[in-house]
Every structure is written in C-alpha cells, then in structure tokens.
Amino acid sequence: MIIRVLLAEDMHMVRGALVALLELEEDIDVIAELANGDEIVPTALEQRPDVAVLDIDLAGMDGLTAAAELRDVLPECQTLILTSLGRPGTFRRALRAGVRGFILKDAPPRQLAQAIRRVAQGERVVDPDLMVAAWDSGDSPLTERETEVLRLAADGAEVAEIAGRLYLSVGTVRNYLTATSVKLNARNRLDAVRIAREAGWL
Questions:
Q1: What is the pLDDT of residues 117-157, one digit of tens each?
Q2: Which residues of 50-74 are buried (b: 16+ CB within 10 A; e: fewer)?
Q3: Closest alpha carbon to 104 in 86, 89, 129
Q4: Considering the entire predicted model, what is its pTM?
Q5: Is 29 helix (H, G, I), strand (E, B) or coil?
Q6: Are residues 99 and 75 in contact, defined by beta-carbon separation less than 8 angstroms?
Q7: Where are the alpha helices (DSSP H) in 30-127?
Q8: Residues 9, 36: contact at Cβ < 8 Å?
Q9: CA distances from 176 to 8, 77, 127, 162, 198 (A)
C-alpha cells in the first residue's frame, strides 16, 4: 500500500529536504507540498491524502487549527505534527485537535517515515519526553477569550483592532489583557505573550 502524504512546511529548504527524504521511501508518495496553512484543507479535500504532515507555525491558518478542521471534514486523513515547538501546552493543544502524531524536527530522519507509517495505520506516535513533560505541567490559567485576545495581541494587533475583530469594547479588551498579565505574573503584555508562548498556550 502506498501512503499518500500532504506536507505543509513554510521554510522552502526544509520542505524540499523533507520531500526528498520521503521520496526515498518506496511506500510513501508526497502528493502535495504547501507553504501556507490556508491551503491545507482545500488541498486535502481535493487530493485526499492518507496522512497530513503539518508544521504548526505557518502563514495563514496554523497547523493545529488546520488539523482540527481536517478531523471534522476529512476524518480518514490522519495528521502528524512535525515541529520545533516541543512544549507541553502545544502538545496538549495538538491532542485536542485530534492529531495522531507529534514529533520534533530534531528527531532522527528515519523517524519521520516510521511515524507516517504508524499514523497511517491509526496508531498514535508521540515523543516520549514530551509526553512526560505534558503530564507534569499544568494547564493554561487563561480562559478561551483571554487566550484569543492575547493571541491577536501577539500577532501585532492593536487594542482597537482586537476590539473590532472580536466585537468587544476597547475597555473590555484592555481588561482581558490586564487579566492575562495578572494570571501569568507578567510585567506587561509582551511579557505575557512570551510566557504564554513558552508554555505552548498560544
């Protein structure tokens, strides 16, 4: 059986290297390679891959959001996250998105092909050290709305823009940002973004 793979990675050199690596495998066929997260779901619906190998940090839709959408619209396509963001919070978000595999980019090259095969068979593939770290670490103290506001702030949106996009008042957005700083014991908004990112909560 040939495993049909969709690969989404925004760094051209890395993507090219991954495609070249996977093309050495007789049972794996890369049918689509993408740089933009917004292309993942439409391309998957058109090409019907068995496995989608997704980076998290993509232009447009991030890999975890795309994974969650694929779970809903194309459940027969299994997803494997390949990322440098090996944080417990990110891993937990991936599990909530229905991801079957989560491996780090610094893993040995042969591990990627093996992970694709296992995920295609419905197995779960997770870096063991990351699983232990996720087990030991706490959940985010932020509410969904606080996380949403902080994520937009992290992307560079100003308070008025966040208010407009979320249909909130400027004062409410400021209150949410203040609450995130207090809950994360951060000095300011930038520090709150840093803490949340390092924990994998954004």
A1: 999 999 999 876 665 555 555 577 889 899 999 999 998 99
A2: bbbbbbbebeebbbbbbbbbbbeeb
A3: 86
A4: 0.67
A5: strand
A6: no
A7: 40-47, 63-73, 88-96, 109-120
A8: no
A9: 33, 37, 34, 11, 20
